[in-house]
Amino acid sequence: MKIIPLSEGCFTIDSSKEFIPFDEHKHLLVDRPKGSLLVEIQPFVVITKNDIIIIDTGLGIAKNGRPQIHQNLMNVGINSSEVTKVLLSHLHKDHAGGILKKQSIAELNFPNATYFVHEKEFENAFSTNSASYNLDELNKLKSSSKLCLLKDENGAIENYIEYKITGAHSIYHQVFWIREEGQIAFFGGDDAPQLQQMKHRFIAKYDYGGRKAMELRKEWWEKGLQEKWTFMFYHDIKNPVWNF
């Protein structure tokens, strides 16, 4: 198994839910609105014997006329048409913004991949009035034959990808384990977004179930140490991948 981070860059976000690019050589965090968080946006590609898997799709930024995630893949020798699976932890726009190539024509960024989303997360996106979701984009995915809605609270995809609903960062957020030849890769999405959060006990105000997220991070860190997991941290600027 090979894991490659596909960074879209560093951003700040505040209560407006807008992601504003941040360059540490040009910008100062104190100049951003009070309470702004500094985060990396970092999908991953995981290459296994049978699949090329994208885990969360980023903001969907375009550069030089093409999706940045396509260029990031090309930089490591992968064409977007080779991706076979897209796993989505949840549908907030910083994790699901790269579902489509161009919203106007509803072209999927990964035309030959199956998109795995939990059914309850999909329903919740349309039942809540939240700026965190891009409903136009989600509507176009909803009508695609490439969408696979997961129905159980925990289960498996083709026997080697495990998923589980946590209800921690968001009510129907899910996490993933990919197991191959003794290696275990774990993606915690926004339940476990950064390395430093695994090492310190705290409750985040932006989480739906902050205390649960805190306890899960402790549980995953301890189990990861015992079983030698590889962690993928979606919002970590310096440590996107961590191995024990």
Quickly name the level 1 CATH class: Alpha Beta
Number of domains: 1
% residues in beta strands: 25-35%
Class based on secondary structure composition and strand pairing: alpha+beta
CATH fold name: Metallo-beta-lactamase, Chain A
Q: Which homologous superfamily in CATH is the superfamily?
A: Ribonuclease Z/Hydroxyacylglutathione hydrolase-like
CATH architecture: 4-Layer Sandwich
Number of helices: 6
Order of the strands making up the biggest sheet: 1-5-6-9-12-13
Extended strand count: 19
Shape: globular
Radius of gyration using CA atoms only: 17 Å
Work out the helicity level.
10-25%
Separation of the first and last Cα atoms: 16 Å
Largest sheet: 6 strands, mixed
H-E string:
EEEEEEEEHEHEEEHHEEEEEHHEE
Q: Which parts are unreliable, with pLDDT below 50 for 5 consecutive residues or more?
A: none
How confident overall, as mean pLDDT? 92
Describe the structure.
By secondary structure, the protein is an alpha+beta fold. The protein has a single domain (2-243), classed as 4-Layer Sandwich (Metallo-beta-lactamase, Chain A). The protein has six helices and 19 strands. It has helices at 68-74, 93-96, 119-127, 135-142, 195-199, 210-227; strands at residues 2-5, 9-13, 19-21, 37-41, 44-47, 52-55, 62-63, 66-67, 85-87, 100-102, 107-108, 114-118, 147-150, 154-157, 161-165, 174-180, 183-187, 230-232, 241-243. Strands 1-5-6-9-12-13 form a six-stranded mixed sheet. A six-stranded mixed sheet has the order 14-15-16-17-18-19, with no helix packed on it. Strands 3-2-4 form a three-stranded antiparallel sheet, with no helix packed on it. A hairpin with a 4-residue loop joins strand 5 and strand 6. The longest helix is centred in the last third of the chain and has 18 residues, at 210-227. The radius of gyration is 17 Å and the shape is globular.
